[in-house]
Amino acid sequence: MSILNGLDEASRASLGLEMHGFAANLFPICRSITGNGIRQTLGHIKAQISLNTFDVPSGKRVFDWTVPKEWNIRDAYIADPAGKRVVDFQKCNLHVLNYSVPVNEKMLLSKLKGHLFTIPEHPDWIPYRTSYYKEDWGFCLTHHQMTQLKDGEYGVRIDSTLQDGFLTYGECFLAGRTREEILISCHACHPSLANDNLSGVTVATFLAKHLAGRDLRYSYRFLFIPGTIGAITWLARNREAVERIRHGLVLTCIGDAGGFHYKKSRRGNAEIDRAAAHVLRHCGEEAKILEFSPYGYDERQYCSPGFNLPVGCLMRSVWGTFPEYHTSADNLEFIRPLKLADSLRVCAAILDVLENNRCYRNELPYGEPQLGRRGLYGGEAGGEEIMARLWVLNLSDGHHTLLDIAEQSGIVFSRICAAAELLCEKGLLSVASDDQLKSTV
Amino acid sequence: MSILNGLDEASRASLGLEMHGFAANLFPICRSITGNGIRQTLGHIKAQISLNTFDVPSGKRVFDWTVPKEWNIRDAYIADPAGKRVVDFQKCNLHVLNYSVPVNEKMLLSKLKGHLFTIPEHPDWIPYRTSYYKEDWGFCLTHHQMTQLKDGEYGVRIDSTLQDGFLTYGECFLAGRTREEILISCHACHPSLANDNLSGVTVATFLAKHLAGRDLRYSYRFLFIPGTIGAITWLARNREAVERIRHGLVLTCIGDAGGFHYKKSRRGNAEIDRAAAHVLRHCGEEAKILEFSPYGYDERQYCSPGFNLPVGCLMRSVWGTFPEYHTSADNLEFIRPLKLADSLRVCAAILDVLENNRCYRNELPYGEPQLGRRGLYGGEAGGEEIMARLWVLNLSDGHHTLLDIAEQSGIVFSRICAAAELLCEKGLLSVASDDQLKSTV
Amino acid sequence: MSILNGLDEASRASLGLEMHGFAANLFPICRSITGNGIRQTLGHIKAQISLNTFDVPSGKRVFDWTVPKEWNIRDAYIADPAGKRVVDFQKCNLHVLNYSVPVNEKMLLSKLKGHLFTIPEHPDWIPYRTSYYKEDWGFCLTHHQMTQLKDGEYGVRIDSTLQDGFLTYGECFLAGRTREEILISCHACHPSLANDNLSGVTVATFLAKHLAGRDLRYSYRFLFIPGTIGAITWLARNREAVERIRHGLVLTCIGDAGGFHYKKSRRGNAEIDRAAAHVLRHCGEEAKILEFSPYGYDERQYCSPGFNLPVGCLMRSVWGTFPEYHTSADNLEFIRPLKLADSLRVCAAILDVLENNRCYRNELPYGEPQLGRRGLYGGEAGGEEIMARLWVLNLSDGHHTLLDIAEQSGIVFSRICAAAELLCEKGLLSVASDDQLKSTV
């Protein structure tokens, strides 16, 4: 069984365009950690995959946190003394400080300036700012816009509501042969920002779509959640599911032109960490492995010491390190169709390792079996194919997984896995671990 | 006790010439994995050391393999249309595909060409080819010879026999103070190829000759066997001896001018692996340590998962990496007298480590003993000699072997060992482990 | 609690001068491993800190050693044929071979020369030489002095005594909250040599002075002892105190302008080794970590296998590696006030790590606690301050010490420690280990 099956090179271009189109549809929506924006986004996802949505009421305690009031916004603008909209939420939802409380006032520019945010070093870009947990209001604008504001009295209007409601998140569950779960989590709370994190939402959605209906060893749980509070809420409400998580990935900033970065789980040598490192070593793109740190996205919550889940974070460019991060320049041009498709392929390759990684036992462990008379030693097979067979036979002592063998031999996992399957067919190898059976539903 | 004793620098040149002369006597013999050639070779070895030979009949099952029919050859040639021998086994036994079935035919060049092997990039060299486990026939010739063949009808004659007989191998056993064994194995099945593996046969023979009659901690078993099938046959027939193997070395390609290569055992950190790495680090020649891989020579069989013996492989140039490999250019000029002698010295140094490596206990472990009043701290002794004493005293807590101490201190084992012996004499040190006694005969 | 408190940057210059002045007072004294010189030195130290002195009689067996006779000297000189003192102990106490037996003779230059020591490569420097355990006499002089000696009869006078007496050492004990001890040891037996080891004596004295009266977790024992025989004598007489040593430092050659060197304890990964490495990594000066070796100063005795104490050695330039070592050029100019002060600060920083290093437990380990509402997440706090809190929360699972966290995060221990204290105040963290209570007096 290969999850990569169907994600072949030929379909890369069309798949990338389809993924990019999906992200483009989500792009204009004004999302936040609560409210209609994220619900509308989940609706789009639900059109692609089987998705359950959950509404958690404002005020609900989740560990040390409280589900906040629900925020919605219809309109927002700054009007100049002549009444002309000089900063307009309708043109770009980044213009409003996310979670701004309602405002409807006239004020002098000098006072207004205390609520304005720009990026002087990138005078054409609008910054993205939030104030979730402290009631405030503000506008984000380009530095050019700001410098053109003349003294005078401005009309300031934010037509938002911040009141009791719900935190909404989506979950897609795919049952596998065992109840052991792989968690794929992405934050879906940022407004018109493409790489952070429509890229993650898109890759997760297409991954779920690709896995649906396949015969899977693991069960899969895809989470589309608001950052931080969403992960904490989900963890607080799903203690039993948490127990079943064997591996996990947070997907974020995964559509841009940069090389891959995988940030290890807190454990540092979990199977997901080794699987991701192996796949990235062989992925044909630049790739770096980062040590765990308690900062970043929702791996912070999954890897808090009470849970310490084996969850890493797969990215291309790392949040905070590229200038477009959290600005209007993180737009649909910043993410690339082919990069989205290749990110999907890399995710699938990582899952392929997890799905197929197990220990085997060489049935003829004394000396080498005579491969020649079984047609397994022919020159036609090519050197690495034979080496893969010899490595699998040599290390299949019930203690080495196929991933161990791939790492030790330097041969890509898929080839090691194919060798193991062929040797099983020929009766030279058998599965040593019955882990598949132990936790079957 | 030092095995190196007698292999001193002064005798290097004459020893090398003696070893090269031994190899030169064996060179012309047409060996194969069975037949008179290997028996004749074992006869030459028997003239040097105490050797038992064993005949295992064709058809005998050995693990997954079957002892093949015995092959012998008297003559082989290709005669041109005028009847002139243009390829002649009498001139070089590499000319015939090893294990060729008998042929006596006339055929057109076009048909004959399907049975000819050359090396176009080295047009003056004859390749070495075999077909042990698939009945076939063929000739190996220089590319120049091939290009000079004109169209026409050729006489093709291989006067060989392939019939039930025996697989023959030789064993030299030297009893030590314990029944624990060190295995030295070399393949003796290649025809006129010098480095691969008359070099291994020669070094093993002279090593056995040098060890004979000495007071040894370990018992030694030297195997002169056909590659692959010989090792498998020996393993299948000697399960009890296998249990007693504590360390082992496969010797191959060990006479050329290249630096040393030691390929680690499957265990990767066996005492033999550490001893070999230590000796090579201090041997004064270039030396590389290679990780285990399940390809190569008979270490493949000794390190199969059912046995997983601590057997490494000592080489100079690595098989397959030098152009002369498996060609007529691997001749008596390709191996050098001094290199053979130095390979013998390195083997002896490795065995010296194994023979002398044990844990000691400092008898005055509280503070330093006063070396000065025992004449052990004198300036005349030279810095490293005193450092060796201090290191041995400091680390001899019953848990560090002399090899551990040599590695940690960076001081060569022989000097550490000499320090330990002197400290024992002075009553400052005693043997901590009674491993010598435990398994005494 | 910070030991560094009071050793602030501002007072560096005046502290350095005070330390240098202390060393300058000790400089002229003719010390040796026994005798009035070391007693006079201990007297100076006693004026600064609470010091007990111990007298161990000559002839006393201490492990493998014997306390030697006591050596004292009043005068020594070589007088030329005209009666003029050409080498004069009164000008520099290095001129006499330390531990010289009495002499009062006339002899020809040719005979005298067998007792003279110079350094031809540094013709203006007087070497420092000793003959503690072999009765002998001699003079050390500059090479220039030597070359100016003309043939003739010289008067040779050493007015010394070598007779039964005492070996004297000093001990400063500071009781902490627990009986677990930190050992600070320095040799105080060298005559007019500044870096080796008035620097160590000075840093240790000022460290003890600084710690006195503070509320300390550990008890501290400062040893001012003659090298080798002093450490062995102390170890032989204090088996119970030895049992309580948890960490230790030998201080030597710690006042010159070179960068720091820390030589690890025999254990190699003791807490003192990690604490010292951490502090040196962040100390702002060049610093190197050296592996343990059984040569050097009194760590040799503390790290002998019977004790194997976690005692490292902190130096600036390493003994034996700088040309001034054991010569008259190791004088008061060779040690620098600011370097003495910074060495003191580094020692205090290492002790701060040991004093404060323990395991904590995150009280809200499921997801992150909401730092924002506690004022712990504000932008004003600066990035690394927040990161320190996140690291402490994430790794405080009862298994990671603060030093583990400092190492893994790359953040300096003091900041990690401050974060832990703040989080404790806020109720988010508590001490996990009760190691403080276990061994309280």
How would you describe what is shown here?
Three copies of one chain form a homotrimer. Chain A folds into three domains: 4-67 and 170-356, Aminopeptidase, CATH 3.40.630.10; 70-163, Domain of unknown function DUF2172 (Glucose Oxidase, domain 1), CATH 3.50.30.90; 360-438, Winged helix-like DNA-binding domain superfamily/Winged helix DNA-binding domain (Arc Repressor Mutant, subunit A). Chain A has 14 helices and 19 strands. In chain A, α8 (271-281) links the parallel β14 and β15 (287-290). Chain A has 441 residues and is an alpha/beta fold. Chain A has an eight-stranded mixed β-sheet with strand order 1-10-12-11-13-16-14-15, sandwiched between helices. Chain A has a four-stranded antiparallel β-sheet with strand order 5-4-9-6. At the A-B interface, α11 of A face α6 of B.
Number of strands of chain A: 19
Major beta-sheet overview of chain A: 8 strands, mixed
The average pLDDT score of chain A comes to 95
Indicate the CATH topology of the largest domain in chain A.
Aminopeptidase
State the share of residues found in helices of chain A, binned by percent: 25-40%
**Overall 3D form of chain A:** elongated
- Structural class of chain A, by secondary structure, is alpha/beta
Measured by residues with Cβ under 8 Å of the partner chain's Cβ, the largest interface is: A-B, 19 and 23 residues
Radius of gyration of chain A: 25 Å
Per DSSP, the total helix count of chain A is: 14
- Strand residue percentage of chain A: 15-25%
Strand order of the largest sheet of chain A: 1-10-12-11-13-16-14-15
Question: CATH architecture of the largest domain in chain A, please?
Answer: 3-Layer(aba) Sandwich
Model regions low in confidence, pLDDT < 50 over at least 5 residues of chain A: 436-441
Describe the oligomeric state of these chains in a short phrase: homotrimer
Structurally, the number of domains of chain A stands at 3
Quote the distance from N terminus to C terminus of chain A. Answer: 20 Å
Q: Superfamily at the CATH H level of the largest domain in chain A?
A: Zn peptidases
CATH class of the largest domain in chain A: Alpha Beta
